[in-house]
Amino acid sequence: KMDDDGDIPQLSSHTLAALQEFYLEQQQREGMKTSQGFNQYSIGSIEEDWQLSQFWYSDETALCLAKEAVLAAGKGGRIACISAPSVYQKLKEQNGEDFSVCILEYDRRFSVYGEEFIFYDYNYPLDLPENLLPHSFDIVIADPPYLSEECLQKTAETIKYLTKGKILLCTGAVMEEQAAKLLGVKMCKFIPKHSRNLANEFRCYVNYASGLD
């Protein structure tokens, strides 16, 4: 009998309705955000996409890292955030006139931030726009999306290309040796927290005298 497609699971009308309601709510939430002129830079204004291995920092952590970046960059400094959008958002909230910042990110939802957004795929570490000159950033903050040697290695190429010297790396504790080898960074005492708990122990690493110890 042809019409007996038992192997194709059918969603019950109830499930379908629930699903549609969920999507509708999501659209309304997104729509509300834009119409209310909500703070587009607040953490969570763009929701985490776990498929992209995204985990936002807690508010306190993002603020702490943003403040550290501003201090490290100095007056009129340039800051690059690689795959660390929650730090970028906190930097923008600072309304600091005396530093500039750009965000290198794979997730194109962040293109709402206009010219400061640079599409970035760590698989092509030096595939960067021409106006991103080598060694043109006072500090580079990076949070490689995956805990793998390959991901850190490739992100490290980008970091070294962009920074004048200072590096603030956020990644798992298991990457300590690799990070030291690739970037000459040391683990700080400061322990970054995420808005949701991660399974892996997460740490910060720097290659300069920072306020994170």
From TrEMBL:
Pfam families documented for this protein: N6-adenineMlase (PF10237)
Chief location category: cytoplasm
Biological processes, Gene Ontology terms: methylation
Upper taxonomic lineage: Eukaryota, Metazoa, Chordata, Craniata, Vertebrata
PROSITE patterns: N6_MTASE
Gene Ontology MF term list: nucleic acid binding; protein-lysine N-methyltransferase activity
Compartmental location: Cytoplasm
Gene name of the record: Eef1akmt1
Keywords: Cytoplasm, Methyltransferase, Transferase
Entry keyword Hydrolase: no
GO cellular component, one term: cytoplasm
Species of provenance: Mystacornis crossleyi
Protein name listed in UniProt: EFMT1 methyltransferase
InterPro entries: DNA_methylase_N6_adenine_CS (IPR002052), Efm5/EEF1AKMT1 (IPR019369), Mlase_EEF1AKMT1/ZCCHC4 (IPR041370), SAM-dependent_MTases_sf (IPR029063)
